[in-house]
Design a protein that fits this description.
Elements lengths: L1 H4 L2 H12 L3 H6 L19 E6 L6 H4 L4 H5 L4 E3 L9 E4 L7 E4 L4 E4 L3 H4 L5 E8 L5 H10 L9 H9 L9 E4 L23 E3 L21 H22 L3 H24 L6 H7 L7 H15 L4 E5 L10 H25 L6 E6 L3 E7 L3 E5 L3 E7 L6 E3 L1 E2 L6 E3 L2 E2 H11 L9 E3 L2 E3 L15
Parallel strand pairs: 1-9, 1-10, 6-14, 6-17, 7-8, 7-9
Antiparallel strand pairs: 2-3, 4-5, 6-13, 10-13, 11-12, 15-16, 18-19
Length: 460
């Protein structure tokens, strides 16, 4: 019975050969998205996206959006009428303790906290007018990662996986390194109603040093690979038998794909997760082994290794350490020192390998910080406007897009809502955000809901 029901290695080889010529079989084996329905592709500027997520909300007025008036008016009350707000008084103005300078041919303003990144100013496209909703971290994180905070929706990475699939047969399309476990948790990299295989594969969590992180169940200490393959052949033959009878079962389809991918990952992931194959010069470039940047350096280097092996969407997250309601000066000095060198190294490493022009790098948090003081020397949450930046992947180099008022409170030119940001990211990846849809609960859903405009001005 076992011999007749198990497909065996011969059947597996036949399946692999058929996969390259049969879209449905390829989808079931996890090699590309199901043809459901055909998604028109644009001329892609980027093959992959790396999102460097600064959890907690870095202060735009202390990092990329200098406001001299904050310093000349520091300690004075900020009237609502000064920034077009209906409230009479908004609080006491807090000046920035950091110096700014213009860098590169584009004259991009960058704080002294990012000296390493400043050397790559001409690679950056700084978005000063990003705006979102929700003053709480949970809502802002969900809007950033899924486009919606009210209902469970697929994450950006899941949509990219659904639209493009992975370039590798042995790796998932979406990997999240040290993801946040709070403020939405798994929803921030979940697939919601999309097939389960599009959910992000999580490596560790934000509060766990990446050097100690493991992928659960990556190896089986009780069975060798040959026995695992035989066992999997039996299970998959039963799954495929069921699928042939019912013709369509997304749950079983996802199960087949995830089982096959999990088996293949055993031979690929350990080698990628190890940094032993990296030359000393590269480790030093990122800051591996040096404090305080060692942990984030390892994360960024892993992101590069996954990118060059065909993963479409890679997220790298800091811990919940940018939320400085007090001691914003001390806090930002400490956090910038952890990420500045690794981020600059990632850009340099991608560039010298010829990968930056086809890799879109996105940096930012869930919102910015207020120009007013909180608790004396801190800043509060500020979703009204904040700064993110992009690099590589067909974006305009050395560009500063959008502007804020004299206090960094509201956008005064080219406001960039979250749905517009998502539409632009998808466009750069060759996906039309209005046609990247999935039918669920009787209607077609998309990442940008019924909103979103591509910001062509930031693309080359």
């Amino acid at each position: 019975m076992l011999r007749s029901t198990a497909s065996g290695f011969g059947g597996l080889a036949l399946s692999a050969l058929a996969a390259h010529s049969n879209p449905l079989m390829a989808a079931l084996n996890g090699m590309q998205p199901l043809p459901n329905p055909p998604i028109p592709h644009l001329a892609a500027r980027a093959k992959r996206l790396i999102f460097l997520f600064m959890w907690g909300g870095p202060s735009h007025v202390d990092l990329f959006d200098p406001k001299p008036r904050l310093n000349t008016s520091s300690g004075k009350p900020l009237a609502g009428s000064d920034v077009g707000d209906k409230r009479d008084q908004l609080g006491q103005i807090l000046g920035s303790p950091f110096k700014f300078a213009r860098h590169g041919q584009g004259g991009v303003w960058i704080s002294e906290l990012f000296p390493s990144l400043a050397r790559h100013a001409d690679k950056l496209c700084v978005l000063r007018s990003v705006t979102t909703e929700g003053t709480a971290h949970g809502e802002a994180l969900l809007r950033l990662h899924t486009g919606n905070a009210n209902l469970v929706r697929p994450s950006v990475g899941a949509w990219v996986s659904y639209g493009l699939g992975s370039e590798s047969e042995n790796l998932p399309a979406f990997i999240t390194i040290s993801p946040p476990r709070g403020h939405g948790g798994v929803q921030n990299y979940g697939s919601a109603f999309l097939p389960a295989r599009h959910q992000g594969t999580a490596i560790g969590s934000a509060e766990t040093p990446i050097a100690k992180a493991v992928i659960p169940n990556l190896s089986n200490p009780r069975l060798n690979p040959e026995l695992q393959r035989t066992q999997l052949d039996l299970v998959q033959s039963l799954n495929r038998s069921h699928l042939q009878r019912v013709e369509m079962d997304q749950g079983i389809e996802g199960l087949i794909a995830s089982y096959e991918l999990a088996y293949r990952m055993q031979s690929t992931m350990p080698q990628i997760m190890s940094l032993d194959d990296e030359p000393r010069e590269t480790l030093d470039l990122y800051g591996v082994g040096s404090e305080p940047m060692d942990n984030f350096a390892r994360q960024c280097l892993l992101a590069r290794k996954f990118a060059e092996r065909g993963v479409r969407y890679i997220q790298v997250s800091t811990d919940y350490t940018w939320d400085h309601h007090t001691k914003v000066q001390k806090g930002h000095i400490e956090e910038a020192a952890k990420v500045d060198r690794p981020i600059a190294a990632l850009l340099e490493d991608l560039d010298r390998r010829g990968m930056l022009q086809e890799t879109l790098v996105l940096w930012g948090g869930e919102f910015g910080r207020t120009p007013m003081a909180e608790n004396g020397d801190g800043r509060g949450h500020h979703p009204q406007v904040f700064t993110m930046w992009m690099a590589g992947g067909g974006v305009r180099n050395g560009l500063t897009y959008g502007a804020t008022d004299d206090f960094g409170f509201h956008p005064i030119s080219n406001p960039l809502p979250m749905h517009d940001l998502h539409a632009t990211l998808l466009h750069a990846m060759g996906l039309n955000h209005e046609k990247l849809t999935f039918r669920h609960a009787g209607r077609d859903f998309r990442l940008t809901d019924v909103y979103g405009n591509v910001v062509h001005a930031v693309l080359s």
